[in-house]
Amino acid sequence: MKRLLATFMALVCAVIVCADNLPILGNVLNRKTVSLNGEWHYLVDVQECGYYGYRHERLANGFFRNNKPQRPEDLIEYDFDQAETMAIPSDWNTRDPRLFFYEGTLWFMRSFDYQPTAGHRTLLYFGAVNYEAVVFVNGQEAGRHVGGFTPFNFDVTGLLRPGENVVIVKVDNKRHADHVPTLIFDWWNYGGITRDVLLVDVPATYIENYSLQLDKTKANQLNFSLQLNQEVAGRQVTIAIPELKIRQTLTTDAKGQVSTSLKARKLKLWSPDKPKLYQVELTLDGETLTDQIGFRTIATRGKQLLLNGEPLFLRGISIHEEKPNGGGRANGPDDARTLLSWAKELGCNFVRLAHYPHNEYMVREAERMGLMVWSEIPVYWTISWTNPETFANASRQLNDMIRRDQNRANVIIWSIANETPHSAERDHFLSRLAQQARELDDTRLISMAMEVTSADNYHNVLNDNMNQYVDVISFNQYIGWYRDVAAASKMTWEIPYDKPVIVSEFGGGAKAGLHGAQNQRWTEEFQENLYRENTAMLDKIEGLAGTTPWILKDFRSPRRLLTGIQDYYNRKGLFSDDGRKKKAFHVLKAWYEGKR
Questions:
Q1: pLDDT value for 5
Q2: The pLDDT of residue 92 is above 80
Q3: Binning pLDDT at 50, 70 and 90, where does residue 486 land?
Q4: Are 445 and 413 in contact (CB under 8 A)?
Q5: d(Cα 428, Cα 416) in Å, to the nearest integer?
Q6: What is the per-residue pLDDT for 327?
Q7: Taking residues 442-446, what's their average pLDDT?
C-alpha cells in the first residue's frame, strides 16, 4: 500500500510540474519564431475522459500522456496518431460539421522537431484559445489560461528536448455564468486554437515588453519605457529610430526597467490620410528587436475629438472577428485585409473591433491602411459583478489587450464594456476597469458602449453613472428596428455631458437579395430606409463625433433562428456573408462622404 501511495504521489508531482506562466510577450510577430501552425490531431472529449490520468496512476488513458501500448494486452482507448486532423489556427465549429453546435472539450496534439539554441530560452506562445486552455509539453503541464481572445505564453525551456517533442492542448469552450463573457452573448462561441501557435526563441535575459509614445502635450517628445523578463540591473539597452536620427543607450535599474524621453525633430505624425510608421530598433546584448511604430495624439476638447490637435469625425463601422466568406473565426492577414478593405470602400477611417480583442494581424493591418481602432474586452451584457474571480478575469483581459497593442498608433479607444445594465455593483466593477486602463495607458481615450435608459415617447435622455469615468460618451440605439419602427425622424436626443459622442451601434437586418417594400422587414429596402432615416436623425445630435453602425458583414449567432431568413446569422451586415453589398451600404457611404 505504501509503495502504491508513493508511486501515486510521484506521478502526481510529475504531472503538476508547470513551466513559468509569464506576462504577455510584446511584439511577438517580429521575434525569432518557429510556427506550430498546421495540421493537429484532435479528439472530441464529451465526458472529460482525457483527465483520467490525473485521478489515478494505474490508468494510462490520460490524453495528456500520449501513451502507446507497450504490450499486446495493454488497454489504451485513444490514439492521437490515428485521430483526424484539423488545421490550426481555426475553429472546430466550421472545420468539423459534427461540431457545429458543440460546446465542450477537445484535445489537440502536434508533434514537432526542435533544436533549442544553447543559452537561450524557448517560449510557447498562443495568440488565443477559446475559452480555457491547459497546455502539456512532453507529458508535463506547461500552464493554463482562461479567456478566449487574448494571447498567452509559457517558458517551456525545461520541458523541451532536442529532437521530437509533443504539445497537447486541452481546449474547453463551455460557457459559465462567472466567465467573461458570461452565459449569453450574441455571437458564435467558436471553440478551438483560433490564432497562431509559435515557439519563440529568446536569450536568457530578453526584452519582455516596451512602450514608445508621443507625449500628449509636447510635440517633439517621445516617451519610452522597457521591461526585461528579469529584475536585473546594469544591462545596456539601445533604442534607435534611424529615420529620426535617434540613438540612445540606457541602463536598466534594479527592476530590469528603463525609461526616458527622446527628442524627435521633424516628426511626421500618423493619420488616416498618411499612416506614417517608423522603423524602431531595440538592442540588448547584440540582439535587435525591430518594430514599426507611428506617433500621434488623441484627445478631447469639450464635445470634439482631436487627432494631432485637429477636430475629426469618426466614420466608422463595427466588425466581428469572422471570416469574410462562409463564417468561422478570422485569424490571419488575408482575412484582415479583406474585411478592412470593405470598410475602406465604405469610406471609413475608423473601425470598432467588437466585442473582444481581435487578432493582432487585424490591428496591424488597420494601422498600415490608415484605420483608427476601438478595441474592447468582452464585458458584455450581464456579468457576475460581485464575483472577485470574474473581475480578475476581466482585469487580466484588459491588461493583455493593452500590453499587446500599446504601440499601435491607430488604437485610439480602449472600451471596457458593452450594453451593461445599470447597478451600483456594475458601476463599481467598471469604474475599476476604467482606472486600470488609465493607469496602464494614459495616451488613449476610455469609452464603453452604453444603453439609452431614459426615453419619453420620442425624447431620449442618456443617463449613465459611468459618464464620469470615460472620455467619450458612446451608446447603442436601434431606432426603427427594436423600437419605434419608422419613427427616427421624430426622435430627439439629450446627452447632458460635455464630452464627444459616438453612436456605437445602430442598424437593422436584411437578407441579401430579398427585395420588397421599404416597410417590409428583412428586405434590403427596409434596411436602406432605416439607414436613411437614422443618418438624418443622427445629424441632429449635438456633439456627434462619430458612429460605428452595426455591422460590416453578416455574422453567425445562435440567437438568430428565423428559418429561411436568419438561419443562425445576424443579418444586420452591410455586406452579406459572401461579400455582396446591400442597398444600405450606399446610404452610409454617401452620408460619410459628407463628413470629410
A1: 35
A2: yes
A3: low
A4: yes
A5: 13
A6: 77
A7: 97
Residue 439, Cβ density class (10 Å: 0-12 exposed, 13-18 middle, ≥19 buried): exposed
Reading the block at residue 31, the C-alpha cell is: 521575434
- Please tell me the predicted confidence (pLDDT) of residue 73: 86
Rounded to whole angstroms, how far apart are CA atoms 575 and 554? 7
d(CA 242, CA 175): 49
Neighbours of 182 (CB within 10 A): 18
Count Cβ atoms below 10 Å from residue 243 Cβ, excluding itself: 15
Q: CA-CA distance, 328 to 88, in Å (whole number)?
A: 13
* Three cell numbers written together for 440: 496602464
Q: ∠ CA 182-467-417 to the nearest 5 degrees? A: 20
Closest CA to 594 of 521, 535, 554: 535
Segment holding 305, helix H or strand E: strand 304-307
Q: Are 181 and 380 in contact (CB under 8 A)?
A: yes
Q: How far apart are CA 522 and CA 572, in angstroms?
A: 9
| Grid cell of 332 as nine digits | 490571419
Q: Is 56's pLDDT higher than 60?
A: no
Is the model's pLDDT at 59 over the cut of 50? no
Cell of 338: 479583406
* Cα–Cα distance, 109 to 106 (Å, whole number): 10
Q: Is residue 385 a contact partner of residue 365, using CB atoms and an 8 Å limit?
A: no
Give the Cα separation of 586 and 549 in Å (integer): 13
Q: How far apart are CA 136 and CA 574, in angstroms?
A: 43
Q: What are the helix (H) ranges across 375-521?
A: 388-405, 424-440
pLDDT > 70: what percent of the chain? 94
Cell of 175: 460557457
User: Rg of the chain's alpha carbons, rounded to an integer?
Assistant: 25
What cell numbers appear for 403 in the block?
500590453
Helix (H, G, I), strand (E, B) or coil at 326: coil
Q: What is the pTM of this model?
A: 0.94
Cβ contact 239:263 at 8 Å: no
Render pLDDT for 325-375 as a digit per residue (tens, 0 to 9). Answer: 877 999 999 999 999 999 999 999 999 999 999 999 999 999 999 999 999
- State the greatest distance between any 2 C-alpha atoms of the chain, in Å, as a whole number: 82
Residues forming beta bridges with residue 224, ordered by sequence position = 212, 260
The predicted pLDDT at position 281 comes to 98
pLDDT for res 455? 67
| Cα 525-526-527 angle, rounded to 5 deg | 90
CB atoms within 10 A of CB 220: 12
The yes-or-no verdict on residue 60 having pLDDT over 80 is no
Mean pLDDT within 187-205: 98
> Mean pLDDT over residues 297-305, rounded?
97
Look up cell 457576475; give the residue: 384
Residue 346 to residue 122: CA distance in whole angstroms? 43
Q: How many residues does the chain have?
A: 596
The sign of the dihedral angle between the CA atoms of 56, 58, 64, 65 is positive
| Block residue for cell numbers 489537440 | 108
What confidence score (pLDDT) does residue 485 get? 66
- Cell numbers given for 78: 485513444
**Residue 38: pLDDT over 60:** yes
How far is 271 from 265, CA to CA, in rounded Å? Answer: 18
Secondary structure E strands in 339-379: 350-353, 372-376
Tell me, what's the pLDDT at 431? 98
DSSP 559: T
3-state DSSP call for residue 20? strand
Handedness of CA 294, 375, 104, 155 (dihedral sign): positive
